[in-house]
Amino acid sequence: MSRFPADFLWGGAVSNVQAEGAWLTDGKGLNVYDTQDIILESGQKTIDSSELASNHYYQFKEDIKLMKDMGFKAYRFSVVWSRIHPLGDDDNPNEAGLRYYEEMIDELIDAGIEPVVSLVHFDMPDNLAKKYNGFYNRQVVDLYLKHVAIVVERLKSKVKYWITYNEMNLAPFHPGLVAGAKRPNGVEQAAFFKTIVHHTQLAHARAVLAIKAAIPDAKVSGMTNCPWVVPATSASEDVLASHIRNTYHLWLTFDVMTSGKYPAYYLQFLKNRGIATEFDGLDDIQEAAEKLDYLSISYYQTNTIRGVIDDNVVAMEDAIIFNQPVEISEGLNATEWGWAIDPVGFRTVLSSVYQRYNKPIFIVENGIALLETPDENQFVSDDARIQYHRDHLRSVYQAMQYDGVDIIGYLAWSPIDFLSSHKEMRKRYGFIRIDTSPNQHGFLLRTPKKSWYWYQSIINSNGELLDEA
Ligand code: BG6
User: Fold this and answer.
1) Which of 24, 126, 208, 415 could make an S-S bridge to 30, C-beta 3.0–4.6 Å?
2) Rounded to an integer, what distance in angstroms lies between the CA atom of residue 215 and that of residue 300?
3) pTM (two decimals)
4) How far apart are CA 454 and CA 460, in angstroms?
5) Is 290 exposed, middle or buried (0-12, 13-18, 19+ CB in 10 A)?
6) pLDDT tens digits, one per residue of 201-232
């Protein structure tokens, strides 16, 4: 019988740029999510605007009420950088933006829901991307910290759980959306990688220190996505490829955050490419590591990778790190968008992360995107979503019960439907359906799906009902 800890934080998470809409309302500036050049992902059919999204800006109270009714103990959302600093280099913050998030947090606290706040979630002001080249530019680290200081000062009496940077490990691989940066002409891939890694690590570290200085009992974490790969075959080249890929796409970020140092393998990686191994701000990175409370992760899928044969080892490694396509493991089902469904892999990831760092883990994103057709009452019978969360939660339980992993909570992706990171509204993740046609008052109808009732029963039983088929 599954027994979760009594204080387990059940809940959900949202990225506000993907849900709020109101993209130029009350002083907000456009950000990299609003303006990104979309390259369609596999299975994607539409690109929808973030102008309206889920209209969460105007309907957040209704959404929080539905989360409360589901039994949420915690809710993660992001404070949109360009709502507070529309240009990013503004002299003063936008008061309406600060007030908005303060009101949202008050609403959560009244509902008995613990707010978990993310900073930087695909929301860098477009101006910082265009004028400075985002986190490729060292100045943007300082502008980010100025922003963080203001947000923290305003919310410090209400928020305990903080996440400094959403999926920081993806910044060098998806630099436009995740770091607001482009690789300048003439800059080699590895040199660009080093700069983005260092500036985002520094931004994270100084944010940890700023939060801890303002809120001594804050619980602060860094966050990575878990793009876990396994060897396509038992061939040693494939095993080596999976080791290299996981090292640079996942471990490096947490290795630095938790040890406060650049590890030997990474210094060697730089040397082998003729790149200097000096860094500024290492003392802060070290101090932040000592203050980090927990690790946040998102998990969606696993993949397989094949080795690359090349006598030039650096070229072989670069091919694996930067170019080698990944594939779906034989025997796994995948979503419409080709994301493999692998709950067993989730236990492996949780257990591996915990064994490596021995820090509590907060699962702050896990969910499945589905194509959905509601009935005439807007009701959606999303059995595949129930199955996905049930299987993944069983793995969470197994990681705790059989591997001794310390897990703070599970925040499902997501309570409500919203635009995907590629801005597709067909790609739905929510327990609550959002009808995209506004009514006469401009509001979008919310309707709990079958999974809403299921997740409510899981939370109410503190996981015991997971045992039911
Ligand atoms: C995570 C992001 O990488 O994946 C979310 O933090 C995103 O913002 C989620 O929505 C799912 O990806 P997508 O592309 O399907 O929205």
Assistant:
1) 126
2) 32
3) 0.98
4) 10
5) exposed
6) 999 999 999 999 999 999 999 999 999 999 99
| 420 CA to centre of ligand 1 in angstroms | 6
Q: Residue 425 — φ and ψ, nearest 5°?
A: -80, -20
Helix H or strand E segment including 295? strand 294-298
In the reported structure, the alpha carbon of residue 53 is separated from the centroid of ligand 1 by a whole-number distance in angstroms of: 15
Q: Express each pLDDT in 231-253 by its tens digit.
A: 999 999 999 999 999 999 999 99
Quick check: 409 and 363 in contact, CB under 8 A? Answer: yes
Q: How many CB atoms lie within 10 A of CB 90?
A: 18
Cis before 352 (ω within 30): no
Beta 432-434 vs 446-448: how paired, if at all? antiparallel
User: Is residue 2 predicted with pLDDT exceeding 80?
Assistant: no
What pLDDT shows up at residue 173? 98
Residue type, 385: R
Residue 262 exposure: Cα atoms within 13 Å on the Cβ side: 20
Tokens for 33, please give them.
Answer: 């999510």
| CB-based pocket (< 6 A), ligand 1 | 15, 18, 166-167, 225, 298, 365, 369, 420-422, 427
Angle separating helix axes 282-291 and 252-259, nearest 10 degrees: 90
- Rounded to an integer, the average pLDDT of 311-327 is 98
223: left (phi over 0), alpha (psi -120 to 50) or beta: beta
Give residue for tokens 């691989």: 173
Which member of 20, 107, 167, 424 is catalytic? 167
What's the rounded mean pLDDT across residues 402-430? 98
Instruction: Count Cα neighbours of 228 within 13 Å in the Cβ-side half-sphere.
Output: 23
